[in-house]
Structure formats: structure tokens, C-alpha cells
Amino acid sequence: MSHCWLFVLGIGFFSLCFLMTSLGGQLSARRPGDSPFTIRTEVLGGPESRGVLRKMSDLLELMAKRMDALARLENGTELHRASGDGHFAADRFPPGAGLMERIQAIAQNVSDIAVKVDQILRHSLVLHSKVSEGRRDQCEAPSDPKFPDCSGKVEWMRARWTSDPCYAFFGVDGTECSFLIYLSEVEWFCPPLPWRNQTATQMAPKPLPKVQAVFRSNLSHLLELMGSGKESLIFMKKRTKRLTAQWALAAQRLAQKLGSVWRDQKQILVHIGFLTEESGDVFSPRVLKGGPLGEMVQWADILATLYVLGHGLRITVSLKELQSNLGVPPGRGNCPLTMPLPFDLIYTDYHGLQQMKQHMGLSFKKYRCRIRVIDTFGTEPAYNHEEYATLHGYRTNWGYWNLNPKQFMTMFPHTPDNSFMGFVSEELNETEKQLIRGGKASNMAVVYGKEASIWKGKDKFLGVLNKYMEIHGTVYYESQRPPEVPAFVKNHGLLPQPEFQQLLRKAKLFIGFGFPYEGPAPLEAIANGCVFLQARFSPPHSSLNHEFFRGKPTSRELFSQHPYAENFIGKPHVWTVDYNNSEEFEAAIKAIMRTQVDPYLPYEYSCEGMLERIHAYIQHQDFCAAPGPVPPGARAPQSPFVLAPNATHLEWAQNASSAPGAWPPAHSLRAWLATAGRACTDACLDHGLICEPSFFPFLNSRDAFQKLQVPCDSTESEMNHLYPAFAQPGRECFLQKEPLLFSCAGSSTKYHRLCPCRDFRKGQVALCQDCL
Which residues, by range, are in coiled-coil regions (predicted)? Predict the structure, then answer.
């Protein structure tokens, strides 16, 4: 029994020590020399401090009651045992002090401590009440018209401040003052409190001095930054290592072209969201099984581009790394970051964008202008604007982010509303080109498609092709030959990139069967001297008729498997035919066998072309400090436009001052009124130009219609992604009310759209003649 009460006493003592230690940290800062268990009287009176005191009081009372019971029980037991062992009690206690009396004394001491704790507790409540009373007038939500949401936010904090631990991390403790301090100093919904020290909140960190970016040619440090452990990262690193010499040569060429142009070094975070475990990372396990590699090709080239251009780079492929680099406070993601964002730019994808929104709190809205989203198929403005998309049926799983559409960066230049990021294909030197010319087999074809499902149902086309050419495939298989691949096809299985390149260098034809859409392989084939044969789609493929595009934030129609190859390269390198017409298909094969082509790579898909393009974006695109849009219908004192001599379109007047800060430069603007039912994307291409959405604000006025001699009997401003536009019946002119809805994409037979076009550099459609 003596062991039992010793055990209880020991547990109680250590519990008391623990609580006292907690109390010492919460009630006040200890002075040097204080015992760890010293209870200071300068009680703050916060709920947590009072809670600890209550726990101590309850624990001491419980100990006293149990020890009193044990004492009575022990008294009888010990007396009985003492009769058989007279020296027991004398060994344990001083003479004259029995066990019962000693335990009762301890219990009394505990009771006295409990009383004192209760007194401290009451004192703390009184003190808290006085502090609250004294600051009540200072801690009421102010009715300041500059901060209309303040009182509502305080109400929300009262009810929900415990919903996320991040609020307590920033000092919120349930008091009115803590709510207002948080809402004025961490968030920005309430005005600063006059009795607070404003020095810390008003002193924004000084911007670091600008540093010039210097081209890099050694990529070994980049390979270290990329990390390891995932098959996708291993693939990307191999690609980067293989292209190191080409990147170095491209950097040398671009440096010579730019001369002494100053380039700001940016601090850049690259977060590859689709490779994080939280997003499922479905790509890494499929790298070695014929899965899609286009995204990894592009990301590898983006990393190389940013690094070679000389920028500071941080790479993350996990949510934990992302949170650490951003400065995300502990909790559920409702609070802002703990520090100013240390990055000038963030490159990510839709998965990463979602992760940032979930964990950055209000900071996401503050810093989203710095984000660039790698988006293979593009995001059109009608899908990007949340309210408009919801009201007009454009809402999808991926859109509605309310970003500037130029922040989305595509794999091919198919959506001028977005920025064209691209990737690179390996460039051959003259010696390699000569070897290819001499080593081509005129009757050898390679099929585009590593997954067996792509071959399903293609026996008819393969049978026709087999009459003229030896057919090769690179279809993944583990043990048995895929049944979808006919026996007359020589299947090499999945090939490493260098071996695949060698196969293309021997082949005459690279043939696609309609899928995958818009991948890098056709450009690689053309760069290695192949002719690319692809199917024409009738009707065109889109989200309306094909499951693959359903849910993607675009209404774009694909008239072939690879529209860029068809429209920007074309014959003799690219042939697009109707596969359902067997005679046309067979005639094309015969014609291709007679056609001689040299290896061809568009400049924009070379290492130098990508470096040039991304350099221009980084130095000129600024979505954070963009000037406010001109109100619809606002008329400048002097119109910058003149009607072209042939009276077909508007041009920027030579004597007009160029719009300051505009990029591309405003003098490259050419404005056309499209025919009814024609999108601006197509209307500009009809004139050998590119639609430039950043020029829409210049045209969003009645003056532009008048200069084009368009009769506007009425002019209205509305939210519509087709405006500015002219409606022939009723002679109505419509202006754009929402700048985020300016859109090159979109058409209606009801409207003649007013379209801003620009010129472009040969081989570099993303940049105008004077954009560098």
C-alpha cells in the first residue's frame, strides 16, 4: 500500500511540475535566478493563462482528496504492520511523527497552495477585467469608410478565430484587441490602432539592389537543384544534361545579339505541382511505360532556360517544400504568409496554383500577379473570369482564376490571349544534316504513338502504308507483343531518347493517327529530316465533341492532330490529309516518297529561340504594376490612330507619342474590323499578323469605330468576351466593360469584332519586330 500512495504522490508532483513550467512560460517571462516553478504575480489574464491556473487548482484539490483517503487507509494498515516490524516507521520518519500526521500535513500544505492558486486566479480575472475596461474604447471596430469590411471581419473573427491554428500563431487570443491587431497588421481590413507601435508595421523591407543577370553555360548546379528520387526528375535531368552544349552555344549567340542590354536578375520559384504526391503524381510511374513525356520535356527546358538566363532559381516538387519556401504559417492556410514573398516570379501549373491558393491565404491575392502558369492547351478569357464563366456556361474544373490571361503559358502558340512558352528540339549542325541526307531510307516509316491503345482500329491505314513502306513502332510492352500492333510492324519497344532520335534520322515518314494532340515528337521528327503525315479532322475536335478536351478551359477547335505543324510549318515538311478518303491517303504516301526534304527546326523551338522569348517576357511582362484600364468610351485628347491609305484598317499615327510602358510597343498595332462570325485570332492571321490582346484597351472607344468609318447609332458598354464589336442590324457599337475579358478567341455571326493585330519576328511569333 505504501508503494501505491508514493506512486500517486509522484504522479501528482510531476504533473504539478509540468503545469507550473507551462504556467511560467505563459504568465510572464522568468527573471534570471527564478525557480522553474516560481509563480509570478504579473498575470497577463489571457484565456490560456487562466486555463492553466484552473487546471492546477483542480489537480491540487484532487490530490488532496486522494491523499486524505490514502492517509486514513494507510494509518490502519501501517499500525498493523508496525506491530510485527517495530523498526519500520522509525526508519522512514523522524521520531514522534507518525505516517498519518505526516500525510495530513502534506495534504494541508497542498490545500494551502490550492487556496493561493485560487487567489492568483481571481486576481488575474480582476486584472483582465480592468485591462479590458481600460482599452474597450481603443479596441472597438472603427467605422472608417476606408475600411468598410473591418466590423464584419471582427464579427467573423469572434465566431471563427479558433477554426485555424494560424490565428493563434499570429497572436490572436480571443480578445477584441487581438482581433483588431491581427486585422490591421497581419491582414489589411482594419485601420492601424493608434496606441500600437507603428514602426514595425510601417517599415516595409527595403528592396534589394538590382543585380545584373549573367548567362550561364555550366548546368551542373542546375542538375543538383532538380533533385532526384522520381523517374520524372531522372528523365528531365538526362534531357538537360544531353542538351548542355546546345544551351551553352545558344546563350553565347543571344548574348552577342543583346549586346550591352541590362537584364535584371530575378529570384524565381519553380513549383511543379503535378509531380507532388498531393496531386497524385500519375506521371512518374508511367515514364518507363510509354506514358506522356511532353510535360516533362517542357518543364526540363523551362528550368534550363531560366537557369541559363542567369536568374536565381529554387525548385520544389513537394507541398512541404513549397510551404517552407513561401513562408506559410502553421495551420490550415487561412492566414497570410509570415514574410514578404521572396520571389519575383513563380512558375507553376494548375495543380501548383491550387496548392498555393489553399495555403497562402490573403497573400495569394496579393502576389498572384507574380505567378506564371504552364498550361499546355491554353485558357481563354471567357473561362478565366470567374463571374462571367459562371453566368455564361464557361466554368470548368480548371478555369475561373481571374488572372491576366497572359499569365498562362502554352506549349504551342495557338492561343494569343496567353503567352507562348514552348520547349526546344535538338538542333543539328551541318555535319549531322549531311549524314542524315545520305542515310535516309526512302521507304521507312515510324508511327507516332507509344501506347498500344493509339494503334487500335488502325489496321486499314497500316495495311495501305505497308504496301509502300517498312513500318516501325516504339510501343511499350513488358513481356508479350501488344495485340493492337500488327505482325508486319517492327516494334522496337520503348526507346531511350538518343535511340529514338537515331530511328528518326533513318526514317522518311513520321505518321500520326490522331492522338496524342500537339506533342513535341512531330517537331523532333521534322528536325531530323522526316516528313510528318497527319489526319485532318472533320468536324474539328473540341470540348463539344471529344472527351479529351471536355473540362479544359478553351473552346479552341483542332482541325488536325498538330495545328502548329500544319499552319506554321506546312508542306513539304507537313502533310495534312483526310484519312477517311483512302485514295487521298494513298496518294499522299506516294507523293511523300518522291519528296526530298532537309531537316527543319523553327527558330522559336531552338534553344536560342526559347532563351530569347523568355528573356523578353521576364524583362517586359509586368502584371503587378500594369496601369489601370482606360474607362470604356474614354476619349484621348488626340487620337493615336490614323486610317491606313487603303482605308482597310487603323495604324498607330507616326506623330503620336507611343504609349508609355506598353509592351509590345504600341506602334506595332494594326486594327481591323473582322467579318461577321470571325474570331480575332483568325482575322489577324488572314492579314499575316498576330492578334495582340494587350492592345485592346487602345481600341475600346467609340473613336476607333469612327476612324474605321463604322456608323455607331448607339454605343453600349457590357461584359462580353467578344467586345469591342459592331452589330450590323441596328448599327450598334459595343465596348468592353471588363478588362480581363478582352479576348482574341471567340466569334459570333451577330458581330464584326474590332481586332488588334501586330507584326512578328520571323520564326518567333511571340515577339513583334521591335519587342526586343
Answer: none
Q: Is 251 exposed, middle or buried (0-12, 13-18, 19+ CB in 10 A)?
A: buried
Contact of 623 with 690, CB cutoff 8 Å = no
Q: What is the pLDDT of residue 399?
A: 87
Flag whether pLDDT at 177 surpasses 50: yes
The one-letter code for the residue type at 243 is L
User: How is the beta sheet containing 408-410 ordered, strand by strand?
Assistant: 312-316, 267-271, 345-348, 371-374, 408-410, 419-420
Angstrom distance (rounded) from CA 48 to CA 57: 14
Structure confidence at residue 535 (pLDDT) = 96
Question: Cell for 458?
Answer: 488502325
Secondary structure (3-state) at 472: strand
Nearest to 382 by CA among 357, 365, 399: 399
Bridge partner list, 316? 271
Q: Encode pLDDT of 153-167 as tens digits.
A: 999 999 999 999 999
CA dihedral 589, 591, 592, 598 (to 10 degrees): 180
Q: Confidence band (pLDDT; 50, 70, 90) for 282?
A: confident
DSSP letter at 764? B
- CB 223 within 8 Å of CB 238: no
Distance separating alpha carbons of residues 195 and 179, to the nearest angstrom: 15
Percent of the chain residues past pLDDT 70, beyond the cut: 79
**Whether the Cβ atoms of residue 430 and residue 436 lie closer than 8 Å to each other:** no
